[in-house]
Amino acid sequence: MGGGQKDYPTLIEDAGGRNESVLILDQTRLPSEAVMLRLVSLEDAAHAIRVMQVRGAPLIGATAAYGVALGLADDAGDTRLNHVIDTLAATRPTAVNLHWALARMRRVLQESALAARRDAAWNEARAIATEDKAANAAIGQHGLSLLQARQQGSRPINVMTHCNAGRLATVDNGTAISPVYAAHAAGLPVHVWVSETRPRNQGLLTAWELREAGVPHTLIADNAAGLLMMQGKVDLVIVGADRIAANGDTANKVGTYLKALAAKAHGVPFYVAAPLSTIDFACSSGDRIPIEERAAEELGAGDTPVANPAFDVTPAALIDGIISERGIVRPGTLEQWNA
Ligand SMILES: CSC[C@H]1O[C@H](OP(=O)(O)O)[C@H](O)[C@@H]1O
């Protein structure tokens, strides 16, 4: 488990289990302040996802699931259910976990009697959150083998990552950072190159959680990644994902593709870590993944015209393996996980 979880969980139900509200860690306040926020309505949940108070594909999915439960507090009828799901679906387009979670909630609730829908929504949201924790822990154990294979005595195993795909991007344990936590817990010497990740600098979130967990790490400018790989200072790259297409093409935070190109150029293994809820088997290839364009203000360029795509797509050919709770496979073989 990542550091700080006991004090600052990313998402947790109201302590009394009264099915009334959830608490989230407001990630827009990190790393300077750790502030928990209470969500009591559909609008609270949609706002939290839209403005990235919660972020990270699996955490967005779990928050949306709880947003459905919150949205049905006073009315669980079909019209209200459709409004709630449409509102949450419109918050962010790229992370398929959001849309996967909403489809699952819709499926379960449409099969529930009207009087049982409110409790069924809370129970299913709780199940999604619990499953995410377990899936990410399993990713850690599968990914641990990649780090163990690169251990050379007491020399730190140097992992590079991009953005934040740690526990802060999930209900707990993280995805790309989960193997790092597993290695750290197993006593392996591990060090993480943390890429700041312009423009929202989610790398500072990774640095925050690694510091909480006592995992050695070094913050770098995004553009320094290629030099470090050229200098042989990176043993492997592990990144998260927001949507993996059926052919293994992967959408992740913008800048991931550049790291994959540099990794290929320097023979550095490049892995994607994600739970199965991030694989979109209905999406045949990466060119079909919607790429979120965020506000120009995030770049702070004043009146200068801005392009601000929040994600890019790494072709499967640049990915050595995809790590999920089911194991590690080549990107072109994902159909085996399509239950
Ligand atoms: C474990 S998924 C994390 C994934 O989500 C992030 O995007 P954002 O911070 O915009 O929600 C980024 O792409 C991470 O790799």
Automatic annotation (TrEMBL):
Substrate binds at residues 55-57, 92, 202, 252-253. InterPro entries: IF-2B-related, IF-M1Pi, IF_2B-like_C, Initiation_fac_2B_a/b/d, M1Pi_N, NagB/RpiA_transferase-like. The record marks 163 as: Transition state stabilizer. It comes from the Bacteria. The keyword 4Fe-4S does not apply. Pathway: Amino-acid biosynthesis; L-methionine biosynthesis via salvage pathway; L-methionine from S-methyl-5-thio-alpha-D-ribose 1-phosphate: step 1/6. It catalyses: 5-(methylsulfanyl)-alpha-D-ribose 1-phosphate = 5-(methylsulfanyl)-D-ribulose 1-phosphate; 5-deoxy-alpha-D-ribose 1-phosphate = 5-deoxy-D-ribulose 1-phosphate. It is an enzyme of class 5 (isomerase). Keywords: Amino-acid biosynthesis, Isomerase, Methionine biosynthesis. One of its GO terms (biological process) is L-methionine salvage from methylthioadenosine. The active site is at 242 (proton donor). Its EC number is 5.3.1.23. GO terms for molecular function: S-methyl-5-thioribose-1-phosphate isomerase activity. NCBIfam families: eIF-2B_rel, PRK05720.1, salvage_mtnA. Belongs to the EIF-2B alpha/beta/delta subunits family. MtnA subfamily. Catalyzes the interconversion of methylthioribose-1-phosphate (MTR-1-P) into methylthioribulose-1-phosphate (MTRu-1-P). Also catalyzes the interconversion of 5-deoxyribose 1-phosphate and 5-deoxyribulose 1-phosphate. Part of a bifunctional DHAP-shunt salvage pathway for SAM by-products. This is Methylthioribose-1-phosphate isomerase. It comes from Sulfuritalea hydrogenivorans sk43H.
